[in-house]
Write a structure and sequence with these properties.
about 200 residues; mainly alpha; two-stranded antiparallel sheet
Length: about 200
């Protein structure tokens, strides 16, 4: 099974058939898709300027989508290295029990679904790398009451998400499943109340 880097090389290679290059880019999303496969694909297509169903996009647009994905992956991999080093130091210092950020991180190892978007058409408009930087910054500071990606304050608790965890606070502005560790208990309670108000 090909890894992300070999698939990226194939997607970039002008000697390859365009259909194979597009296919290789799609396969990259099986290795790294911050919003989930479908939402990340929709995001990359809209930012690069070709349709999700376009079977023969311009090669330059295909490469632009790949470059955005690679930049975001580099941001996430750097975070994972720092995370692993921190946990190693904590264990060395006798802190064996992981915290809530660690529990969340375990579910997103490798970067799949880091900023899950259950609706593939509703996702942040900013570059993927910027979204991940904002999310990482939020994980490294005290919890807040708004979406760490777009600053939206309307969070609604949703159930039966096609992800793990299968429920949680979703930002109605940018569509991400907001990681619970970045929100205060009050913000989480507010999101649950919003769910009840919407279903009443």
């Amino acid at each position: 099974m090909a890894g992300f880097r070999s698939l990226a090389r194939q997607a970039r290679d002008p000697r390859c058939d365009l259909a194979l290059r597009r296919y290789s880019l799609r396969k990259c999303l099986e290795r790294f898709a911050p919003y989930g496969h479908r939402a990340t694909w929709d995001h990359l297509c809209s930012r690069a300027g070709f349709g999700p169903e376009d079977r023969s996009p311009e090669p330059a647009r295909l490469v632009a989508a790949l470059e955005e994905l690679e930049e975001a992956r580099a941001v996430w991999l750097a975070y994972e290295v720092e995370f692993a080093e921190r946990r190693k130091k904590e264990k060395h210092d006798g802190l064996r029990r992981p915290g809530t950020v660690d529990d969340w991180h375990r579910l997103t190892w490798g970067g799949f679904g880091v900023a899950w978007c259950d609706d593939p058409r509703l996702h942040p408009v900013e570059p993927l790398a910027e979204v991940l930087r904002r999310l990482i910054a939020a994980l490294e500071r005290e919890p807040g009451s708004a979406c760490p990606v777009c600053g939206g304050e309307r969070l609604v608790w949703k159930y039966d998400l096609d992800h793990e965890p299968s429920s949680g606070p979703v930002c109605t502005d940018c569509g991400i499943l907001v990681p619970r560790p970045v929100l205060t208990p009050e913000a989480l309670a507010y999101a649950r109340r919003e769910r009840l108000l919407m279903s009443a």
